[in-house]
Amino acid sequence: MSTEPESYGAEAIQVLEGLEAVRKRPGMYIGSTGPAGLHHMVYEVVDNSVDEAMAGHATTIHVTLLADGGCEVRDDGRGIPVEQSIQYPELSAAEVVLTVLHAGGKFGGGGYKVSGGLHGVGISVVNALSTRVEVEIDRDGRRHAMAFADGGGIVESLHDIGEAPVGPDGVSRTGTTVRFWPDPTIFDEVSFRATTLLERLQMMAFLNAGLHIVFTDQRQDSPPVEFRYEGGIRDFVRHVNATKESLFSDVGYFSASEDRDDGSMEVEVAFQWNTGYHSDGLHSFANGINTIEGGMHEEGFKKALTNTVNRYAREHQLLKDKDENLQGEDIREGLTAIVSVRLTDPQFEGQTKAKLGNVPVRSLAERATNEKLAEWLEEHPSEAKRILQKATQAARAREAARNARDATRRKSALDGAGLPGKLADCSSKDPRASELYIVEGNSAGGSAKDARNSETMAILPIRGKILNVERARLERMLANTEIQALVSAIGGGVGDDFSAEKIRYHKVIIMCDADVDGSHIRTLLLTFFFRQMRPLVEHGHVFIAQPPLYSTEVGRNKVYLKDDAAKAAFLDAHPNHKNEFQRLKGLGEMDATELWETTMDPVSRTLLQISVEQAAIADEVFSILMGDDVESRKTFIQTNAQDVRFLDI
């Protein structure tokens, strides 16, 4: 029987006008309609203000979470132009910016020399996905206002409402104020998380030396939080390394710029080594955008870093003639570095702007590093000697790790690598259809094996808490039985050898009890994946199973409730509910039927996907949670206790 539509003619072709396309497919513009997309709305508005700061026209940005659920962003930049639009004579330039996709001052080169907003969809997308947007513009001594509702419909056209406020210096204020209220029919939830916004705002302050950012949460009785870093990315490096033991107190820094026929470029780099064992402490940015997949600026810096350090070591007899050159990973072990570039016409790969593709930036970063880092090493001989000693130790450890990896590869993924509870593999050989459940404890592993769909679900029980990889080199990790089993089962390798293309499962699901021990095991596993299988996380293959905390009876049916919030929502919907709520037992105490119904059935289960959107922040969080600094860990937990529902986001 045919499933083709009855007719396919011109009437079937739909054209989405104006901002309608954004409301129809919001994920195309902000990534998702979950918490990440909600907070992306704030970033889009703030980025416009940051562009004004990068252009030298703004010094202060106020971000306020309003008591009624809205958000206000105010800057002291030039203010959006209020004159009549040339392209759209029926609208002002400001109205065009708010209602037309791909409209802004970032395309012709006259509005901004550099900017993060490449596609020109930011603030118009915010308008499309809000129930109301209010804009005030202070410019040329006057204040103008306009308002929109229900996805961008003009409620109040741009109009003059009087004189702009005069500051203490007697000069009329300039700048733009945007207030918006996210549409609850679009987003899964519309409650902003203060900590998520603070992390992003702090990063923007680090990347723009001297920029003053003030955050206020009117929903709580708490004082404003202010960020201003005169040291810029040098302060960023100090912040990331604050929970680690630095090799030396100095933070190195250099910068360079170049003017070309097709625009200008500048690069700045800050760096400091610590005693840690990881070589993933390099974080790069282009026009304030976190390029988590790297790009040309990273390539240029890494190549020159390796060459410059080896050259210095040869010239100063720290490497002998018989010694092999140090590899890049040896030199980068324990390195925290921020590479930030600004350029007129950034070429990002994809809408996510995760990788920078401008080839000339690679040459600039390489030349600057070759020249300026060599000068820094000559001027800091004591620090240079410590760097070389650490890199040499890393080279020896790399060789030991290579031998350990070779031994691990020889183990079959089916032998369990010595675990009492062996891997129960699935029959499917298609990674896209296959799932690996990493289950806490042998008893839970037994229930999971009985409950699973053996065609697509593999079960790997792990015993107890795996090694804390934040405090160990790779060769020690690979001597750990549980980690050997993880590496063998997943099949993509480990460390720098890891390849997401070789993995045997496209869903790796951590399934632990909903208690303190379960949370600790889950964090240990996430630390391992982040440090040693990072592409697994970056490609969205890591998930957390979410077994429910409660069950209750409604008539003859059993209802499962995920957490206290779900329990409260259930009681709101069933105010006369008389039955008791049962606190569910641990995974190991559930029988196979209950485990399948609550946690494993693809039709009804809840999986939380793990992502790494801001690698520098993730680096810091893992170092705090799993490092040696007890006081920092205690402070982090106390600060984030109220936002525990977001812990895995």
Describe this structure in words.
The chain has 649 residues and is an alpha+beta fold. It has 3 domains: 20-227, Heat Shock Protein 90; 233-403, Ribosomal Protein S5, domain 2 (2-Layer Sandwich), CATH 3.30.230; 411-547 and 607-646, Rossmann fold (3-Layer(aba) Sandwich). Helix content is 35%, strand content 20%. The protein is built from 20 helices and 21 strands. The protein has an 8-stranded mixed beta sheet with strand order 5-4-3-6-2-1-7-8. α3 packs parallel to α6 and α8 (296-315) packs parallel to α10 (359-379).
**Major sheet: arrangement of strands:** 5-4-3-6-2-1-7-8
Beta percentage is 15-25%
- Quick one: overall form? flat
Task: Give Rg in angstroms.
Answer: 27 Å
The CATH superfamily of the largest domain bears the name: Histidine kinase-like ATPase, C-terminal domain
